[in-house]
């Protein structure tokens, strides 16, 4: 269906409360939040590592772990008890319709973190893409005992790392896991590190200094929170030390002039007719209760009644909703909205902006597209699935302007090319931002027949 034409907002309203912006920002920066996504091949140990991290930080108590151990023993899977810490919370948290990634908040003395848990299985790449778009940093878990199976052939390690880089994750911790299984071997670690570094710097163009390697055992806890005695040849930091130091460097340097944009991750209806709560991570800018926003593509205006940040303790059902005077880029928030004309049209993936700065949806854009290794040529007109943030939508190439910098006459793209193309979104118009406007939202990933085939930067929106 066609979206409504751009409407003049009914109300453009001011914040409810006058605040001292610099002071509020300073407060937020006392304990900045770093969000990280855990990626990697299935069974590489993602859940186990995360469970170990939370357990060794005393965020999950031994009673909870004991209970989980008993449960997992009773079905003959004792080794899964740490992994269940995350799985159990994800179930508890599953309140909305669309929560297919799990967010877990935890705090240490100095820092606050959000873990984005994404499924490692091949069928879950779309959710993994969603997870990556919410993260500042990726931790890739690599199984030292079976590195090759996740890396060569159709393993998920390469695909996950490719997607992470294509969606703007510049920094990556590569945790070489299950070092206990390979006898804590430095040779094995060096071999894997070498192969990964080559792939990441040569093919994915990562900057070497942005790659942090770390040998560990999530299961036994070596180098997660406690330094390992089994790895005397490694003099670097443990995972939590690395995360703490990354957290310090996040230090929300908010560009006060950058426009407010938030992608909707979840929509929660209320018993009251004129209220609706949407949640998401703020992509840029800042917002206060009392301000009015526009939601694209439906172009409705709503008033922000209140803003809350949900803090829950992992492993318990204690949830705190902290009301905010101000919310800023990078924060995961819930916005309680008032006075929307039409509820039904608000969906996951919609973009919120300030009411006086609505985002006009469109269905065509020019794009700098990088093709990866293709098994078949990418043809003009053939549909593929395009991912942008947490939306996936059918789309196709409608023209190819340049290939590797040269004028193009062909009707297809080959492997390992960089081209300028026009992409047409099928089915509906989407709210889009260019790469120039937003370095994360201005990116797309293209998958075809279950493989990631290309990634692009949105150059220009072509409104008809
Ligand atoms: P995920 O699919 O990546 O989340 O992997 P899981 O965390 O579920 O782990 C898969 C299996 O590997 C489980 O049996 C874990 O106990 C085991 N595992 C995970 N980390 C380690 C480790 O560091 N050492 C050993 N020996 N086994 C591990």
TrEMBL record:
GO terms for biological process: translation. It catalyses: GTP + H2O = GDP + phosphate + H(+). Keywords: Cytoplasm, GTP-binding, Hydrolase, Nucleotide-binding, Protein biosynthesis. It is found in: Cytoplasm. GO terms for molecular function: GTP binding; GTPase activity. Residues 31-252 form the Tr-type G domain. One of its GO terms (cellular component) is cytoplasm. Belongs to the TRAFAC class translation factor GTPase superfamily. Classic translation factor GTPase family. EF-Tu/EF-1A subfamily. Component of the Dom34-Hbs1 complex, also named Pelota-HBS1L complex, composed of dom34 and hbs1. This is Elongation factor 1 alpha-like protein.
């Amino acid at each position: 269906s066609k979206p409504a034409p751009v409407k003049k907002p009914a109300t453009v309203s001011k914040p409810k409360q006058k605040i001292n912006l610099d002071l509020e920002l300073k407060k937020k920066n006392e304990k900045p939040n770093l969000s990280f996504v855990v990626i990697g091949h299935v069974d590489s140990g993602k859940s186990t590592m995360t469970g170990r991290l939370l357990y060794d930080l005393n965020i999950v108590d031994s009673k909870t772990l004991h209970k989980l151990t008993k449960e997992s023993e009773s079905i003959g899977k004792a080794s899964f008890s740490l992994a269940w810490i995350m799985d159990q919370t994800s179930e508890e948290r599953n309140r909305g319709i669309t929560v297919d990634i799990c967010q877990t908040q935890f705090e240490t003395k100095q820092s606050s973190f959000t873990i984005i848990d994404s499924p490692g299985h091949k069928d879950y790449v779309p959710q993994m893409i969603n997870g990556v778009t919410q993260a500042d940093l990726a931790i890739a878990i690599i199984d030292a005992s079976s590195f090759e199976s996740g890396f060569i052939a159709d393993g998920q390690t390469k695909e996950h790392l490719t997607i992470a880089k294509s969606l703007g994750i510049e920094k990556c911790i590569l945790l070489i896991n299950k070092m206990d299984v390979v006898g804590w071997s430095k040779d094995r670690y060096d071999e894997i590190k070498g192969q990964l570094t080559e792939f990441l710097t040569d093919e994915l163009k990562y900057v070497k200094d942005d790659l942090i390697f770390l040998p560990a055992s999530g299961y036994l806890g070596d180098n997660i929170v406690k330094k390992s005695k089994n790895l005397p040849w490694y003099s670097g930091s443990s995972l939590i030390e690395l995360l703490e130091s990354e957290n310090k460097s996040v230090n929300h340097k908010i560009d006060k002039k950058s426009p407010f944009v938030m992608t909707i991750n979840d929509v929660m209806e209320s018993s009251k007719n004129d209220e609706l709560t949407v949640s998401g991570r703020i992509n840029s800018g800042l917002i206060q209760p009392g301000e009015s926003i526009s939601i694209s593509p439906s172009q409705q205006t709503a008033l922000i009644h209140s803003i809350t940040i949900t803090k829950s303790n992992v492993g318990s059902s204690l949830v705190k909703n902290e009301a905010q005077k101000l919310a800023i880029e990078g924060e995961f928030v819930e916005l309680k909205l008032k006075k929307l004309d039409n509820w039904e049209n608000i969906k996951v993936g919609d973009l919120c902006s300030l009411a006086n700065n609505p985002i006009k949806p469109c269905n065509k854009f020019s794009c700098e597209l990088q093709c990866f290794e293709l098994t078949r040529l990418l043809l003009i007109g053939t549909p593929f699935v395009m991912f942008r943030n947490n939306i996936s939508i059918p789309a196709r190439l409608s023209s190819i302007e340049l290939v590797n910098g040269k004028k193009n006459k062909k009707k297809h793209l080959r492997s390992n090319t960089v081209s300028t193309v026009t992409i047409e979104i099928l089915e509906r118009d989407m709210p889009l931002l260019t790469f120039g406007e937003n370095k994360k939202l201005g990116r797309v990933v293209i998958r075809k027949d279950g493989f990631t085939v290309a990634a692009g930067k949105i150059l220009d929106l072509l409104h008809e």
